[in-house]
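Predict fold of Cytochrome P450; 417 aa.
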Amino acid sequence: MGTQMSVREAGLAVADPQSYADERRLHEALRILRREDPVRLVEAEGFDPFFAVTRHADVLDVERRHEDFLSAPRPILATSEMDALQRRHREAGTGLRTLVHMDDPQHRVVRAIGADWFRPKAMRRLQERVDELAHRYVDRMAELDGSCDFVRQIAVHYPLYVILSLLGLPESDFPRMLKLTQELFGGQDSELRRGASAAEQLQTLTEFFAYFGELTAARRAHPTDDLASAIANARVDGTRLSDVDTTSYYVIIATAGHDTTSSTISGGLHALIEHPDQLTRLKENPDLLPLATDEMIRWVTPVKEFMRTATRDTQVGGVPIAEGESVLLSYPSANRDEDIFDDPFRFDIGRDPNRHLAFGFGVHYCLGAALARMEIRSLYTALLPRLESIELAGTPEWTATTFVGGLKHLPIRYTLT
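Predicted 3D structure, encoded as tokens:
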């Protein structure tokens, strides 16, 4: 790897979107921080200071202490400029306010609106549709004559169709939702973003708000049997959600509900290509697919971080954190922690136990975790029996991001039966 980076350089790497497009560099930095300075004060140019929390035990500690550490006012890492712009929008009542931005007691009651749609009973009802879509996209691979960019042509579409079907949106709107989602999460990536400025990136949110504002009005005028209608007509203490909260709910479901899953499906396939012994093992032992699914999720960790702000003077890992200071929870680091995982840099489809934190923990545990696992299992259940050979057909590329992302290109060659 050449000259080892310093602890200071490792800390700065956490705030650099390009680090997440270079997995070797990222994991080198995180390994140094876990070993040398696991709760590291980072003062990166253009960002307000924060502490990077890199050990599994410390991330878990912060997640458990949801009264000591709040999502507000800084739920994700953003530049000082973007933080200020978002703050002005929130004060004006026009800013995005999803479950990610909320804390209890509001978080608990708003989360409950969608919770039933992601419980086991609802998942069983959705299984047939998910399986149908999984087979559709494996058939699509077969139509592509043995080569494709798996991310662009398969992985981004399949979970998008699942989540937007759940919401009840027409398929004609799916391409628009895909473009807006990629712009929202790809705001730090020169290929995916709409523009470089904070104002240009917020224009993506403006378009989301306009689209979902029309959807809310339609579902309130003519309620239907879908999740969009449940959100539009939900009441908290007898009152409907505000327009901002309703639209924000749609945004988090429609975006996080597919982008994270597509990243895991793509990253999981890449891992299987890079570890052919594990691919053979999984094809010969399909009963390992539930464990393999969680190993893919750990390996990829599509949500890179959330931020929390201290409500009082406290400590994390023995490091003093003052009231009002922020911590960044590094999930890729926690999920490769040598103290928790046996040989954490080995991709092991039979890893058990697998105490990854890719879905978070505690009150903010991912609402769609069961759906994500079901989608991943369904796709690989459809693909693996038909897969005779597979290899890379070019260089994989990762998204530059500090929040949500994974592979943005995965060129492959393959033969299917």
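The mean pLDDT is 92.
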